[in-house]
Amino acid sequence: MTVARLNAASLRFKNWLRWSLVCLCVTLAACGGRVDLMGSIPEDEANDVLAALLKENIAAEKVSGKEGMVGVRVDSQQVGRSLEILRANGLPRERFAGMGQVFKKEGLISSPLEERARYIYALSQELGNTLSKIDGVLTARVHVVLPERGTVGEAGTPSTAAIFIKHQDGYNLEIIQPQIRRLVTNSIPGLTADRVSVIFVASQNREAANATAEKFDHVWGIAVPSNSAGTLSALLWGMAILLILALVALGLLARKYLRPAAASAKPATVQIEPRGA
């Protein structure tokens, strides 16, 4: 009976150990799982995303999708950092609508005003798409105003254009500003170079901004700049030590001068004479 019980206990222990190992493996696999960072995107965009992530030592891989599209998969614990890297690099690239998509005939006949608005939108999209191909450009916007004829006795409105380009930090696009201005000028009828405004904005590095931003530390519950925290802490500790020493000195003085006076003050004695004296 004893041997049979030992065998049964050993068998139960082995089953428990086996199921524990299975649950541990499942838990570890769930904790270290991989998630799809990007869904169905063109392969060239997926290559850009993959290159940006691998450059920052993030293990990423491409997975096949539907209709020739691909996705990008990363570790579940790297999703937040991966999104910050893609945002800093302007990925995935913005998709612009082409002339064919904007002027795709659908439904009823469009009015001249609608056709004009669609033409301006399509022109802005085409120019923005072209400018986004420049190295270092994260976002490109072109706002176009086409010429309008004035009424009798009034001058018409000439063509104007405003260009906004956000680029990565470290790229100097000012040197190609004349080429950008010439590109937009030659793409819009009736537009001259003096009526084209170009604005460049460098992307701010979040890590560098946090490093240069003034940080605060708390010293005894007081929020002070980090560069002054040590000085304030030393000053407060010095004041505390001086206060303790002052209290000790007062205690010693009180013990020295007050106790002898109390000891010298003896109670008065009353002599009582007997009655029969």
> What is the helix fraction of residues, given as a range?
40-55%
Beta-strand proportion: 15-25%
Mean pLDDT: 74
Radius of gyration: 40 Å
Major sheet description: 3 strands, antiparallel
Total number of beta strands: 8
Helical stretch tally: 8
Structure description:
The protein is an alpha+beta fold and 277 residues long. It contains 8 helices and 8 strands; from the N terminus they run H-E-H-E-E-H-H-H-E-E-H-E-H-E-E-H. The strands form 3 sheets. The protein has a 3-stranded antiparallel β-sheet with strand order 1-3-2, covered by helices on one side. The chain has a 3-stranded mixed β-sheet with strand order 4-5-6. It has a two-stranded antiparallel ribbon with strand order 7-8. The longest helix is centred in the last third of the chain and has 39 residues, at 226-264. The model is unreliable at 27-31 (pLDDT under 50).
Task: Please summarize what this structure is.
By secondary structure, the protein is α+β, with helices and mostly antiparallel strands. The protein has helices at residues 2-31, 43-55, 79-88, 99-102, 112-131, 177-187, 206-212, 226-264; strands at 34-41, 60-64, 70-75, 137-145, 160-167, 196-202, 216-219, 222-225.
